[in-house]
Design goal:
By secondary structure, this protein is an alpha+beta fold. Helix content is 24%, strand content 34%. One of its GO terms (biological process) is quaternary ammonium group transport.
């Protein structure tokens, strides 16, 4: 295991700034997600840690040793690529053994370590199977086994589950988390999938236009995003514009939205409310509980999603979204007036 420190790293490609003064620490033994849209710099950062790309400025340190100018083969990094990059002319065991073979490890030691790692990824019985005879999930585990059999200090994963269908991806998220905990290796993975980042990560870094926008635990980023971009990129969020006043934020319809005591008030001009934090009911003329914030809106349409129904609502010329858990009650018809209410603690102040 190893700690990785990225310190004020920048990278320019022509007129495009791929990374802009990025600093982030990956603590020993953790599982870290890098999340962002296409072109945000997350893959460039991953490849820079691996040694495929050198920074224009800044440092990358592994266990406090600078490595930003070391070639790939001297960094003791394991990497799983998006397309797995397996050798189709080799069977499972030979694919996994490849990294050990090129290091001239003794054959008996190769056999032992390959057997151990195939058992770890639950592919021991498929050691002689050809790659084209494997499912997508099995290929993913072969690629993972090949990356960890050399006992690297750091494991890097580039969109490791993107090639899998949804149901298999969920299963592999559980498997990947189990394997990472079993080998206790510092792991950094790139994804554009919000759910994957929340499910897998100990900590998440959100990148945009080459900058690190926010970093923290998945729960911290979801419950306390610092900006509109972070709030809307990591999950759904309803954004309300307003101005701060004594007691809350005055929004477009004149309502005063209250928030919890955790915020240091500065120059926030917006607030966000997660759709699942809002209670929805037909408007009856009765006021919502005095302890809650509340608005009135009109149902524009609704989408049945099995576990939840998502209501899209018109409010002051703006579209709001509310997730309601399905309990067997009838859907509220399109065109109905509804009341939205939520706890002040569920109001998130953002810039």
């Amino acid at each position: 295991m190893a700690e990785v420190n990225v310190i004020k790293v920048s990278k320019q490609y022509g007129e495009s700034r791929a990374l802009d003064d990025v600093s982030i620490r990956f603590a020993e033994g953790g599982l870290y997600g890098l999340l962002g849209p296409s072109g945000s710099g997350k893959t460039t950062l991953l490849r820079m840690i691996a040694g495929f790309v050198f920074p224009d400025s800044g440092q990358i340190r592994i266990d406090d040793q600078p490595v930003e100018r070391l070639p790939v083969e001297r960094r003791e990094i394991g990497m799983v690529f998006q397309n797995y990059a397996l050798f189709p002319n080799m069977n499972v065991a030979d694919n996994v053994a490849f990294g050990l073979s090129v290091r001239h490890v003794d054959k008996s030691e190769i056999k032992r370590r390959v057997g151990e790692v195939l058992d770890l990824v639950q592919l021991g019985s498929l050691h002689a199977r050809r790659i084209n005879q494997l499912s997508g999930g099995q290929r993913q585990r072969v690629a993972l086994a090949r990356a960890i059999v050399t006992r690297p200090r750091v494991l890097l994963l580039d969109e490791p589950l993107s090639a899998l269908d949804k149901s298999l991806r969920v299963d592999m998220q559980v498997e990947l988390r189990r394997i990472q905990r079993d080998v206790a290796i510092t792991t950094v993975f790139v994804t554009h999938d919000q759910e994957e980042a929340l499910t897998l990560s100990d900590r998440v870094g959100i990148l945009r236009d080459g900058r690190l926008i926010q970093e923290g635990t998945a729960r911290e980023l979801y419950d306390q995003p610092a900006s509109e971009f972070a709030a809307t990129f990591l999950g759904d969020a309803n954004i309300l514009n307003g101005r701060l006043e004594t007691g809350g934020m005055r929004i477009n319809d004149g309502s005063l939205v209250r928030f919890g005591s955790r915020y240091a008030i500065s120059n926030q001009t917006k607030c966000a409310i997660r759709p699942e934090k809002i209670a929805l009911r037909r408007a009856t003329g009765e006021a919502a509980p005095s302890t809650h914030n509340w608005l009135t809106a009109q149902v524009a349409h609704h989408v049945f999603g099995g576990v939840n129904t998502t209501y899209m609502l018109d409010w002051c010329g703006q579209r709001l979204k509310v997730h309601v858990q399905n309990s067997g009650d009838d859907l509220i018809p399109v065109g109905s007036q509804v009341t939205l209410s939520w706890s002040p603690d569920s109001t998130i102040l953002i810039h």
